[in-house]
Model the fold of this input.
Amino acid sequence: DAMVIQNPRYQVTQFGKPVTLSCSQTLNHNVMYWYQQKSSQAPKLLFHYYDKDFNNEADTPDNFQSRRPNTSFCFLDIRSPGLGDAAMYLCATSRARPRTQYFGPGTRLLVL
Amino acid sequence: EDQVTQSPEALRLQEGESSSLNCSYTVSGLRGLFWYRQDPGKGPEFLFTLYSAGEEKEKERLKATLTKKESFLHITAPKPEDSATYLCAVLGYNFGNEKLTFGTGTRLTIIP
Done:
């Protein structure tokens, strides 16, 4: 089945220690998104790629970076995680049209 | 700025007791309204897309409707497995950019 895969499902890191989350897709969608979701809150868009074009949300902290080496993979790098970065990180993909977004299972990040 | 408000925040129903969830929105250039189901610790699962007022979509016990200001997710004769958080999101278009804005969801509990 075509799908969005995120690894790892759970990640524990230490305060200030860089961490990388990964997302892969077999849907062949050209748009990929990263969201942050905290408990009982709406998912918050961090950035998205339209093919290779990177689009950063204005309020995404500089601590968050992303890479998309090819169509199938996208990475979220958190350079110096703080306690406030503990959250569920969701990857989603869509076609250009329609923009229905399909989500992966998420990575739960814990910062100690 | 696009806004999505969902009500109620939480809803407890007896099995078989039908009800409706509300999603009211303000958006620049609506490109679509989406309903997702999210189980605890998992990514949102796509349910429906609605594009224009008057449109309706159905899937099993769920039916989504859309007006110019709000959408309803009707649940008929729910079962315990329908327990989840239901998220509404609008895709708005502003200054050449499309962005999906989520509500905070309605947490639905179906009691056997």
Q: What stands out?
A: DSSP finds no helices and eleven strands in chain A. The first strand of chain A starts at residue 4 and ends at 7. Residues 9 and 107 of chain A are 4 Å apart (CA to CA).
